[in-house]
Amino acid sequence: MNWPRASLLLLAACSAPAAERDPSSWFAAEGQRAFARASTGSGWVIVGGQPARAGLGSCYDAAGRRLATVRLGDDVAYCVDVHGPHVAIGMADGRVLLTTWPELADVQPCWRHPRPVVAVAYAPDGERIASAGHDGIVRVGPATAGAAFVSLEHTAAATCVAWSPDGRQLASGALDGKVRLHTREGRLLRTWNRLGGEVVAVRWNGEALECDVRPTPVAEPERRQLPRD
C-alpha cells in the first residue's frame, strides 16, 4: 500500500518511544509551563508552574506516566538537579528546596537568595550543592536542609553553575560576561572577564571548562530633542 508522505511522518511520530519525545510536553499537557527538567536515569523531574501564581514539580517515568506532583510555592520553579534519589529545586522566590524522587515528599528548605534562583547543581559525590541567583551570589554548602553555606560574589546576576568532574572546583557565570572558578570550599581561583556578552551556561568537557555566551551588541546613542513643557 502506498501511504501518503504526511501519513508516514505522522505514523513515525506516533510510534516513537516516549523517551525520545520532549519530556517537557508532558508537563505542558497538564496546563503548566515547564522551565527546567532533569533526568533520573529511569524518568524525569520537571519543574515550572504558572508565573506569579504557582510553582510546581512533577515526576514522570520513562513512558511519560506522572508519578507525583507537588506544589512548591506561589511562583514558578526555575531550575532542578538530581543526584540519585535526591532532588534540588531553585525557585523564583529565591528558595532552594530539597526533596526526593519519585515521591517528591518531605520538601525541605536548604537556603534562600534575596532574588530568583536560576541554577542549582549537585557536586558529583552528592554531598554539596551550589545555587546561582539573580542577586549576583553563588551559594555553596552541604546538600542538607538548613545547612550553613558560603556566598561567592559576582558583579551581576549569576546565571549558571557547574562542578568539575572530580568535584574539587566550581565554575559559575554571570550576565556581565564573567566566569569565575572557585574551590569546593569557596576560595577564588580565577576570573575570566569581558567574554563578549552574557554568560548563560558553563560546563566541563573533560578537564576543559567551556561556557555559552549570548552576545549583547552596544547600540549607538540616539540623539533626541527634549520637550520644553
Structure description:
7% of the residues lie in helices and 51% in strands. The chain is mainly beta. It has 2 domains: 21-112, Beta Barrel (Thrombin, subunit H), CATH 2.40.10.480; 135-217, no CATH class. The strands form 5 sheets. It has a 4-stranded antiparallel sheet with strand order 1-2-3-4. It has a 4-stranded antiparallel sheet with strand order 5-6-7-8, with no helix packed on it. Strands 9-10-11-12 form a 4-stranded antiparallel sheet, with no helix packed on it. Strand 15 (179-183) and strand 16 (188-192) form a beta hairpin. The N and C termini lie far apart (77 Å). The relative contact order is 0.09.
Keywords, please?
2 helices; Thrombin, subunit H; 229 residues; globular; mainly beta; disordered N terminus; single chain; 4-stranded antiparallel β-sheet
Beta-strand content estimate: over 45%
Number of strands: 18
**CATH topology-level name of the largest domain:** Thrombin, subunit H
CATH architectural arrangement of the largest domain: Beta Barrel
Topology:
Elements: H1 5-15, H2 24-29, E1 33-39, E2 43-50, E3 54-61, E4 66-73, E5 77-83, E6 86-91, E7 95-100, E8 108-112, E9 117-122, E10 128-133, E11 137-142, E12 150-153, E13 158-163, E14 169-174, E15 179-183, E16 188-192, E17 197-205, E18 208-215
Antiparallel strand pairs: 1-2, 2-3, 3-4, 5-6, 6-7, 7-8, 9-10, 10-11, 11-12, 13-14, 14-15, 15-16, 17-18
